[in-house]
TrEMBL record:
Entry protein name: Thymidylate kinase
One GO term (biological process): dUDP biosynthetic process
Gene3D superfamilies: P-loop containing nucleotide triphosphate hydrolases
Ranges where the Thymidylate kinase-like domain occurs: 72-247
InterPro entries documented for this protein: P-loop_NTPase (IPR027417), Thymidylate_kin-like_dom (IPR039430), Thymidylate_kin_CS (IPR018095), Thymidylate_kinase (IPR018094)
EC identifiers of the protein: 2.7.4.9
SUPFAM superfamilies for the chain: P-loop containing nucleoside triphosphate hydrolases
Keyword vocabulary terms for this entry: ATP-binding, Kinase, Nucleotide biosynthesis, Nucleotide-binding, Transferase
Origin species: Ananas comosus (Pineapple)
């Protein structure tokens, strides 16, 4: 087969295997002497194979690319909501697809029940409210997964750790508290804004909701520390807003780039 005929294969080969096979046939024919000593053609074919494989590898990585699940945790009035807003603006300015979420999501029917409870407008058993908080997160799980897989990074103000820490602070068994959360998406990074309960109590608006009591917040802090794992980063929330913001930017960028390189999604507390 002439060189031209062999090369025509490359123009229509739609798959990696077809293209590489065509190149190999050309190189084999040259080595066998049937195509003479056209070294430059042989070199070109090898270059095509290397380039194609590099592109395919890059495409494979891009195919696994996804958004990052960034969770901010901390005591009430630790600065989470403000920092979520600042981080959202920063990442949007960098051109990332990013959204800010908050739990509880008070826009849903379950969320409205939780909101009434937190505002002291209704009374619920501790186990009941814990399961409602968990159900509120499960309401958003499918959407969360779709967003992440489509490349959107999510900055989440409170997640499962809040539910477990707050309920355990009421005296509920911590393993029982974790059980309804198993199977939710595991965060890529959890940033815990570490603020002493006494300092948080000095901030504006403290005491407006059910759980904003100094003694109770101290118990919550203890249980937060019992939940620490390798995905957590502790940031001193007593620093200036600007200092905390700088650290969050660095942590977020590292997490996003890691997820863009193909880090798989995993489930929370599933092993």
């Amino acid at each position: 087969m002439a060189v031209l005929s062999r090369l025509r294969i490359l123009s229509w080969a739609p798959h990696r295997s077809s293209l590489i096979c065509a190149c190999k046939q050309i190189v084999y024919a040259m080595n066998a002497g049937s195509l003479g000593t056209s070294g430059h053609v042989k070199l070109s074919c090898r270059h095509i194979m290397r380039s194609f494989c590099a592109v395919e590898m890059d495409n494979d990585i891009r195919g696994c690319s996804r958004g990052s699940l960034i969770v901010l945790e901390g005591l009430d009035r630790s600065g989470k909501t403000s920092q979520c807003g600042n981080l959202l603006a920063y990442l949007q300015g960098k051109g990332f697809s990013v959204e800010a979420w908050q739990f509880p999501d008070r826009s849903t029917s379950v969320g409205k029940m939780i909101s009434a409870y937190l505002a002291n407008e209704s009374q619920l058993d501790d186990r009941t409210i814990h399961l409602l908080f968990s159900a509120n997160r499960w309401e958003k799980r499918a959407l969360m997964e779709n967003k992440l897989k489509s490349g959107t990074t999510l900055i989440v103000d409170r997640y499962s750790y809040s539910g477990v820490a707050f309920s355990a602070a009421k005296g509920l068994n911590i393993e029982w508290c974790k059980a309804p959360e198993v199977g939710l998406i595991a965060p890529d990074v959890v940033v815990y804004l570490d603020v002493p309960p006494e300092k948080a109590a000095e901030r504006g608006g403290y005491g407006l909701e059910k759980y904003e009591q100094l003694d109770f917040q101290g118990k919550v802090a203890e249980h937060y520390h019992n939940l620490l794992d390798s995905s957590w980063e502790i940031v001193d929330g007593s620093q200036s807003i600007e200092s905390v913001e700088r650290q969050l930017k660095d942590l977020a960028m590292h997490s996003i780039l890691t997820c863009q390189r193909g880090k798989p999604l995993t489930n929370l507390w599933s092993h």
